[in-house]
């Protein structure tokens, strides 16, 4: 079903001529009959070279098995492919599924360089933790690169509403913590200067400083989410695509952020304030 519509304008302010492109974004529930291929593609985009080992085909099946929780964004009607997706999955309830088993091993491995973070995750996801009442929710959020960040806050607001409705029907969406997995990219100073030169002014984040060398979030909202996280870690993919010498390309990695579930409402408010509708 259609949830709501949002309009966005894409402006080009670099020249004397100004071009406007109006795009309507429609918000839909996940559709098991239509969305499988596109959602699997987004899962591969999120986990990059590690996607196959994580069995993201099973993740896609799981997402589509709970269409009452989660949102897709489409631009060409219900029958078209989603450009963006957001949902939450209960790692405890679905712990027997192949993806969840692989994900538990994955997050424990990737968090191991940070003992404090690793211990918290082990308490939640270790043998004893998986049978406790403190359930961990995995926030799956990914979108195509040209999707504006202003579409993100409405999706999180809808997710909060859907979880509340699900809890009223005694469905298993009561979490003690939420685990966000996203992407980062690393730049040398030379790469940062080159990318800055290549990026039109209209596509740069308003009010931000010039791009510098170092680690950067792939999605702007991650800077907001990190403020509510008790633990954050950046990691390298296990199966990373090799970069040819002297070639330009983003050095991608992953980021995990652990947010107490009781901070979620504040997080949604902060996202709305940081990225209001155009």
User: What is the CA-based Rg, rounded?
Assistant: 19 Å
The ordered H/E elements are: EEHHEEHHEHEHEHEEH
Strand percentage: 15-25%
**Helix/sheet category:** alpha+beta
Unreliable spans: 11-18
Average pLDDT over all residues: 88
Instruction: Give the proportion of residues in helices.
Output: 25-40%
Tell me about the biggest sheet? 9 strands, mixed
| Distance between the ends | 25 Å
Per DSSP E runs of 2 or more residues, the count of β-strands stands at: 9
Count every helix, treating DSSP H or I runs of 4 or more residues as helices. Answer: 8
Q: What count of structural domains?
A: 1
GO cellular component, one term: nucleus
Function: Involved in nuclear export, actin cytoskeleton organization and vesicular transport.
Family: Belongs to the BCP1 family.
Keywords: Nucleus, Protein transport, Transport
Which features does this protein show?
nucleus; 278 residues; alpha+beta; transport; 8 helices; globular; 9 strands
Can you characterise this structure?
The protein has one domain. It is 33% helix and 24% strand. The chain has helices at 36-47, 56-64, 98-111, 115-125, 152-168, 189-198, 221-228, 264-274; strands at 2-11, 20-28, 71-74, 84-90, 136-143, 177-187, 214-217, 231-235, 251-260. It is globular.
Question: Could you outline the blueprint of secondary structure elements for this entry?
Answer:
Elements: E1 2-11, E2 20-28, H1 36-47, H2 56-64, E3 71-74, E4 84-90, H3 98-111, H4 115-125, E5 136-143, H5 152-168, E6 177-187, H6 189-198, E7 214-217, H7 221-228, E8 231-235, E9 251-260, H8 264-274
Parallel strand pairs: 5-6
Antiparallel strand pairs: 1-2, 2-3, 3-4, 4-5, 6-7, 6-9, 8-9
Helix pairs in contact: 1-2, 3-4, 5-8, 7-8
Keywords: Nucleus, Protein transport, Transport
Main location: nucleus
Family: Belongs to the BCP1 family.
């Amino acid at each position: 079903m259609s949830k709501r519509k949002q309009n966005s304008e894409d402006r080009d302010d670099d020249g004397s001529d100004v071009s406007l492109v109006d795009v309507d974004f429609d918000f839909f529930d996940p559709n098991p009959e239509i969305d499988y291929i596109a959602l699997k593609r987004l899962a591969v985009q999120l986990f990059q070279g590690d996607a196959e080992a994580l069995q993201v085909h099973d993740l896609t099946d799981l997402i589509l098995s709970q269409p009452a929780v989660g949102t897709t964004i489409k631009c060409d009607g219900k029958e078209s492919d989603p450009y963006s997706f957001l949902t939450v999955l209960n790692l405890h309830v679905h712990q027997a599924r192949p993806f969840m088993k692989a994900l538990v091993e994955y997050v424990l491995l990737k968090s191991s360089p940070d003992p404090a973070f690793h211990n918290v995750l082990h308490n939640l996801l270790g043998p004893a933790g998986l049978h406790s009442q403190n359930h961990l929710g995995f926030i799956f959020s990914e979108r195509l690169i040209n999707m504006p960040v202003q579409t993100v806050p409405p999706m999180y607001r809808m997710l909060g509403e859907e979880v509340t409705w699900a809890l009223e029907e005694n469905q298993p969406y009561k979490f003690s913590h939420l685990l966000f997995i996203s992407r980062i990219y690393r730049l040398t100073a030379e790469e940062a200067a080159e990318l800055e030169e290549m990026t039109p002014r209209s596509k740069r984040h308003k009010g931000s400083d010039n791009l510098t060398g170092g680690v950067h979030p792939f999605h702007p909202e991650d800077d907001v989410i990190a403020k509510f996280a008790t633990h954050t870690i950046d990691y390298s993919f296990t199966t990373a695509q090799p970069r040819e010498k002297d070639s330009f390309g983003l050095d991608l990695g992953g980021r995990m952020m652990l947010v107490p579930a009781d901070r979620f409402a504040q997080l949604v408010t902060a996202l709305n304030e940081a990225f209001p509708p155009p």
